[in-house]
Amino acid sequence: MTPPLSIHIVEDEMIIASDLQDMLHELGYQVNGISINYREAIASLRESKPDLVLLDITLTGTESGIDLAHTLNLSFKLPFIFLTSHNDKQTIDMAKQTKPYGYLIKPFEKEDVFAAIEMVIPRLSPQVSGISDQSLFLPHGKGRVKIRMSDILFAEASGNYITINTKTKQFVLRKTLKEAEAEFLTKQNFIRIHKSFVVNKSDVTKITASEVTLSDNRKIPVGRSYLDDLKKI
Questions:
Q1: Which residues in this protein are found as 4-aspartylphosphate (predicted)?
Q2: How far apart are CA 70 and CA 67, in angstroms?
């Protein structure tokens, strides 16, 4: 199992920082430190580089979270998600210039934090995200489990969630099927056969006008508009 995602919190309100730290621990992430201002954050990040920074836009001192964001981009090459109680156009326009990986409006719930972080993970480096041509890491319990891409039989969509199915396990991700296709269920190995299903090409053993049969004998429905592409595999 891969180590949990390492996150550094930069927040000058210690009650919020402490609550956020508790949320992250409950979600299975590792908190490698809390900083309350620009200078403290720089010193800490030089000592221990996290995978991701949760950064308050408004910080105590002469340098703001926006200033720190520019430094993270230029000197540390670290991804960050902004935390703020301000959602006015001016603040958002300033924040956008630093190209954050996300934006959390206070007050936020644990579910909001989880969604924001999980949406970032596929954009991180392969070593952190766990995505490669041969394998990927998927959330399981309080950690992440490595599975081979070839072990994925199919993915099924349900709203903004998908279920990744192997022969023995299921993994639920907060992600659309379209996003999963762009990130790891690529056309090289997988094919969309229905608005709600993507299957592993190598596991298709039989094709009819209404369904495909997979290597474990499961039958998956075929949408009419996808049949022509399916016949080409």
A1: 56
A2: 5
Residues in the chain: 233
The pLDDT tens digits for 150-194 are 899 999 999 889 999 998 999 999 889 999 998 888 888 899 999
Question: How wide is the angle at C-alpha 230 spanned by C-alphas 229 and 233, nearest 5°?
Answer: 95
What does the pLDDT look like over 203-222, one tens digit per residue?
999 999 999 999 999 999 99
Kindly give, in sequence order, each residue whose CB lies less than 8 Å from that of residue 9, ignoring residues fewer than 6 positions away. Answer: 17, 20, 21, 24, 31, 33, 34, 35, 53, 54
Cα–Cα dist 41/38, whole Å: 5
Pick the closest to residue 160 from 198, 121, 119 (CA basis).
119
174: nearest Cα among 122, 104, 231, 109: 122
CA dihedral 130, 131, 133, 138 (to 10 degrees): 80
Q: Which CATH number fits domain 6-126: 3.40.980.10, 3.40.1180.10, 3.40.50.2300, 3.40.50.300?
A: 3.40.50.2300
Centroid of chain to Cα 9 = 18
* pTM beyond cutoff 0.90: no
**pLDDT exceeds cutoff 80 at 132:** no
For residue 227, the 8-state DSSP code is H
Q: Which helix (H) or strand (E) holds 138?
A: strand 135-140
Most confident of 1-10, 109-118, 154-163: 154-163
